[in-house]
Amino acid sequence: MYYRESGRQSLPPGVKPPEARKARMKALASAGPPPGLIAYHGRTPVGWVTLGPRSDFAKLQRSPVMKPVDDQPVWSIVCFVVPSAWRHQGVASTLLQGAIAYARKRGVALLEAYPVDKRKRGADDWLWHGAKSMYDKAGFVEVARRRPERPVVRLLVGR
Fold first, then answer.
1. Which of 9, 117, 156, 159 is the most exposed, fewest CB within 10 Å of its CB?
2. Rounded Cα–Cα distance for residues 99 and 94 (Å)
3. pTM above 0.70, yes or no
């Protein structure tokens, strides 16, 4: 929900922010289309990717790194969540391939993402946007770079 909202959210009396975010996510998931995709190993959820029309992510409009590159309609891949026990096993890459297939099935022409591009490997828990190398392998092309370690990449999905 972090990137879908911008600014303070008004809360009903007695409701804590985590409870409110959980309720808003449930409502979003119930309304459809899904706000993201979940990867499973058997019945165990092992990862999550958030994607959707760029206009669904209010925080992207204000971000100095992730602000619009141009006026083309894009879907944004915003973040991945992979529990530490499942990292370094290809879960994020599999989720990315699933996101591409899902976008193609939905008729999306252009996918955009905001990965991290560091020379040295950093802490995994800071890679919720995904590593640029993962996007490179999937065929994404850099279209902007507003900070040294934060490119904007795109993939022409189809038409």
1. 159
2. 9
3. yes
Mean pLDDT, range 68-97, rounded to an integer: 92
Paired tokens of 11: 């809360």
Can you read off the two tokens belonging to residue 158?
A: 């189809």
What is the tens place of the pLDDT at every residue in 3-58? 555 556 566 677 676 676 666 666 666 676 777 899 999 999 999 999 999 988 87
CA distance 110 to 115: 16
- Of 83, 79, 89, the closest CA to residue 131 belongs to 79
Closest among 93, 69, 67, 71 to 80, alpha carbons compared = 93
Residue with tokens 């919720």: 128
Judging by DSSP bridges, how do beta strands 75-81 and 110-113 pair with one another?
parallel
Do 102 and 51 contact (CB within 8 A), yes or no? yes
For residues 73-93, average pLDDT: 91
Q: Name the phi and psi angles at 134, rounded to 5.
A: -65, -40
Length of the chain: 159
